[in-house]
Task: inverse folding
């Protein structure tokens, strides 16, 4: 870096103000720069309405006199270059507003921040970590996520597990404890609640102040890089919750940064987010677009993140504080621009929208008129299936459509099925406790619910703790109830979750055609009287399919007839009623032979045992080819081959 490049070019500044400088973090913030003989620290900030900007830190006793920043353009970009390496120094900007007030602000582009409750920014270089995840990055670039299995484990870092003294685990400790646990349970990705710097633990990271600063609660930026690196080396993707719609109003943050509503809308009705007590980003402002889109690029480049789950998309699509859904053209155009630029920069970076509305074409490409997301959370499915599951079994026939309705729109978008933290907090109960009935019935129905979720089209996301069978809802100040693993039913549920994930990942029909009608076919959608649903999941290979049966009542059945598409033998590859899962043992041990008897509109049928609150998957027995001496092939089933070997 030479002295000539210490200051931005006019073109860089033009792009920033236009909303097209997507590497803004390379200009703004604090940067250690070198030439042949010296080391400099450059500070750059945008504060167009400030009368004066000064730099204050522990290197000048927090006295900004003599550390005035130079205003380099009329649009309000300020810069100072210190002929010193200030790595590790604490700093803030002293901003003199137009009204004469002096504001002490953290750097919006700071790469590191003090541990709360302190709020200073820290000069930190992100250049000195040596990544070892090249194989993962190479594989990710060539992988089509649409046709791959995805089971995402959603984690709140501060409450997954804690040390014996109650302290948080560090990023490095999480790498050694969380990663093996997630792998053992068969998950493909870890999704982390927001890790941008935030002042209040209880906000869970959704009200941020430092969008470029990974929170110091759990360690340093390099520590977090190590965590992501270890995830990738162990075959796990990392997704971050990201909040580009609104930000917190703490005095040291973005709110009224230069004494005016710089990052937020000018009008109070558009600016104030009364539900969360935050301020909405002005998404029509070019500098805000540069700030946010650069932030997406930043997490990709510096932390190798694999995707974002974007929070509160509805708050961006529609204007807040209106009795009706009034579309916000600035928000809609921002989402299109964001997704377009992200996918041009990194085509396989995942953009997942948490949109609770029926806004159309959320996952359609921008060039086809869509918003450009890769996936949308299926909030309708989540609400319907939980309402159905919470209904007493003897009344479920009255809400039959809660299960069937999702298939009317299942392929209108590319969906992800979420049982997230939002469903197990604020009095909503844990997944286990939502289930009606006695102790055994609750566990049986949770196994059924999870099985149904894994068989339903769409990628899967589940919040931590479900696999333990927590009775208590999520307590963000405490760790998960790990002591539950001392009890049989909880261990049994945990075993079931591991097996369910394993079968899902091994079964192409359960994920290859998630987004296409060709991957799904009802067998019996109308059995509301018995509350039994049966369908077929299909893979790209027409010979690969699974028969799925879900019994949402506590009644068991012997010789229950189900229509199937092909003659031959079937095996039960999963039954939620296995004793080792906590069930009663109503299973189909033997090979199931299809009869040449039409049923359910299918040419053939099988008779099976269906347990109470049972979830079953049947797979046709594949035939193997055995070569004879003359070079011709004789096709025999595995079962026939075993019988012949036994007789021999």
Result:
């Amino acid at each position: 870096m030479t002295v000539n490049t210490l200051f931005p070019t006019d073109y860089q500044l033009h792009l920033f103000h236009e909303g097209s400088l997507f590497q803004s973090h390379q200009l703004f913030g604090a940067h250690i720069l070198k030439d042949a003989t010296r080391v400099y620290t450059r500070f750059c900030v945008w504060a167009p309405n400030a009368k004066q900007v000064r730099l204050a830190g522990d290197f000048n006793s927090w006295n900004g006199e003599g550390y005035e920043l130079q205003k380099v353009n009329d649009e309000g970009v300020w810069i100072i270059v210190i002929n010193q390496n200030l790595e590790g120094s604490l700093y803030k900007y002293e901003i003199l507003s137009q009204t004469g007030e002096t504001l002490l602000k953290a750097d919006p582009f700071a790469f590191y921040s003090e541990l709360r409750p302190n709020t200073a920014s820290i000069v930190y270089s992100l250049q000195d970590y040596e990544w070892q995840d090249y194989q993962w990055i190479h594989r990710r670039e060539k992988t089509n996520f649409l046709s791959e299995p995805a089971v995402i484990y959603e984690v709140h870092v501060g409450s997954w597990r804690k040390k014996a003294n109650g302290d948080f685990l560090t990023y490095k400790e999480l790498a050694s404890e969380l990663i093996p646990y997630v792998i053992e349970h068969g998950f493909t990705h870890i999704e982390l609640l927001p890790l941008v710097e935030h002042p209040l633990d209880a906000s869970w990271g959704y009200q941020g102040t430092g969008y470029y600063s990974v929170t110091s609660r759990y360690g340093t930026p390099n520590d977090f890089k190590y965590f992501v690196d270890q995830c990738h080396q162990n075959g796990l993707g990392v997704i971050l919750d990201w909040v580009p719609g609104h930000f917190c109003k703490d005095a040291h943050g973005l709110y009224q940064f230069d004494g005016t509503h710089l990052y937020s809308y000018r009008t109070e009705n558009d600016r104030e987010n009364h539900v969360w007590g935050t301020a909405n980003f002005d998404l029509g402002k070019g500098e805000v677009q540069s700030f946010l889109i650069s932030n997406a690029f930043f997490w990709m480049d510096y932390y190798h993140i694999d995707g974002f789950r974007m929070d509160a998309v509805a708050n961006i699509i529609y204007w807040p504080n209106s009795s009706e859904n009034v579309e916000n053209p600035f928000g809609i155009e921002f989402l299109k621009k964001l997704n377009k630029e992200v996918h041009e920069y990194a085509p396989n970076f995942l953009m997942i929208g948490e949109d609770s509305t029926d806004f159309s074409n959320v996952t359609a490409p921008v060039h086809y008129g869509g918003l450009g997301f890769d996936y949308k959370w299926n909030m309708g499915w989540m609400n319907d299936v939980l309402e159905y599951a919470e209904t007493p079994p003897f009344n479920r026939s009255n809400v039959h459509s809660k299960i069937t309705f999702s298939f009317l729109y299942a392929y209108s978008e590319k969906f992800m099925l979420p049982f997230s933290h939002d469903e197990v907090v604020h009095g909503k109960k844990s997944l286990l406790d939502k289930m009606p009935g006695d102790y055994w019935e609750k566990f049986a129905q949770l196994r059924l619910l999870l099985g149904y979720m894994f068989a339903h089209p769409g990628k899967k996301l589940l919040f931590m703790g479900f696999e333990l069978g927590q009775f208590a809802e999520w307590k963000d100040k405490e760790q998960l109830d790990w002591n539950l693993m001392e009890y049989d039913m909880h261990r049994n549920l945990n075993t079931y979750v591991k097996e369910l994930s394993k079968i899902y990942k091994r079964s192409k029909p359960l994920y290859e055609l998630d987004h296409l009608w060709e991957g799904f076919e009802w067998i019996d959608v109308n059995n509301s009287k018995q509350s039994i649903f049966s369908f077929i999941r299909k893979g790209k290979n027409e010979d690969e399919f699974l028969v799925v049966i879900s019994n949402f009542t506590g009644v068991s059945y012997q010789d229950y007839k189900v229509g199937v598409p092909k003659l031959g033998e079937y095996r039960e590859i999963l039954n939620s009623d296995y004793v080792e899962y906590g069930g009663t043992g109503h299973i189909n041990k033997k090979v199931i032979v299809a009869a040449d008897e039409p049923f359910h509109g299918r040419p053939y049928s099988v008779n099976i045992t269906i347990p109470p609150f049972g979830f079953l998957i049947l797979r046709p027995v594949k035939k193997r080819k055995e070569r004879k001496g003359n070079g011709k092939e004789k096709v025999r089933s595995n079962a026939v081959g075993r019988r012949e070997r036994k007789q021999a």
Summary: Confidence is low (pLDDT under 50) at residues 626-648. The longest helix spans residues 488-506. Residues 314 and 357 are 6 Å apart (CA to CA).
